[in-house]
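ok so i was messing around last nite and threw this chain in just to see what happens. nothing serious, just curious
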Amino acid sequence: MLALALSASVAAHAQLEPKHVRLDNPDNAPAPVHPLPHDRQVKWMETEFYAFFHYGMDTFTGEEWGFGNTPKATYQPTEKPDPAQWLQTAKDAGMRGGIAVVKHHDGFCLWPTKTTDYCVSGDDTPAGFNVAKAFADAAKGLGMKYGFYVSPWDRSTALYGTDRYVTEMFLKQCQELTTYGNDQFEMWFDGANGGNGHYGGQAPASRSIDRATYYDVPNLRYMVHKSNPNCVLWGVGGEARWIGNEAGYAGTTNWCIDNRLEGRDQPTAASGNENGWIWLPGESDAKSSGGWFWGEKKDSYTAPNTLFKMYLETVGRNATFILNLPPAKNGKLRDQLVSNMHQLGELLRTRLGNDFATTANGATIVADETTAARTGNYAPENILDNDSTNYYATDDNTTQADITIDLGQQRSIHYVVLQEYIRLGQRVKAFKIQTSNDLQAWADFGGSVPTTTIGYKRIIPQSGDTGNYGNGVNARYVRVRILDCKSVPVISNIGVY
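result:
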């Protein structure tokens, strides 16, 4: 009887023992503001600046959109294409990756696809050279991110517009391209879909499709992500949006969130939608020359200073920037283009290469709003540590804050860079930047440029003029005032250049 009583007592005592429960938010981190980005979208935004390489049949015809009936023998590179030269030039320009156009609307494929004879053979001749494989290999060798443009629209095949095209050609072509590497960062699907084409016949004809449903996007996403989990599907794939122009600029107000965009002329393309229901960040594309594809009549190049201005108006406005560098008939970039890219890289390195607002450069920071309720590290000092995974946050229910950086000495300031910790959602709706030498008299920084959204990255020039480097503002202190926010501000970085 005593043994039974002791057993019952132990059992009862065990039921009273506290259970070890894992808390979902043990350090009371700020709550997310939905919608949130997928990890692949964050990594894609961190790429910031990358290249487009339009090369293919249109390089030899002078066209921008081939009609789909150009003889295969027209594609005749005078030398083997040199993707390593393309990507090295992009790297010299400060880019972090590149996307090769391996199939445009004309349907000619720059890899030996099993879906059509209208492609390179894969042999060691210039005309048979497997550009897709060489491009992926070169990117890996240079430590660059890489991906492919494959046009959903195919003007060369009689199957386009039928049910068979998607299953027998388009999806299989995308799957073939995924075999060239499981670490691709973007697959680019053009927004131009349907219209006049050769379509395997002798006379031109017009075919139309519903791009929202025709390409079987759910299966496309599943197939690509299965082998390339960090690959963002641009355009038709629905994981990033076109910014609405091909001129290298985004809206000064630019949200990473929007509603699904199915047309090419959406009013929110440049600015996103503050109340959107999906994370759909913007990409801005632009040409560095007279055309997307190289041609004798298009062999002129945009000045480096203009390209730098585009960088400020894309990457500096919460978008990514994809700049086209077209190889010529010999499969190489022209000397003038290579020189321009080197000069652009120098501008980026000299103007945005030395951040005064870092602990290593002697900067210190204070904020008028700090957190006492959170047990994790959300101190203002996180802004200066050059670590994007750390961030500053206030207590709950606080949507304003003044953050003041002491640069340690007077500096000539040309740009202020702001970044939110976007893994918790985009929040800031209004802010102001000011400078001072004595903490008493403050002057507004940035001219009349709208200071509304920040997002992944915002770059504010001293006068608001992206085309004028200027003489700089001489100041020791920089104050960023968060004036309005969807929720608690979470700031990962403030850079001063």
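not much to say yet. The longest strand covers residues 401-413.
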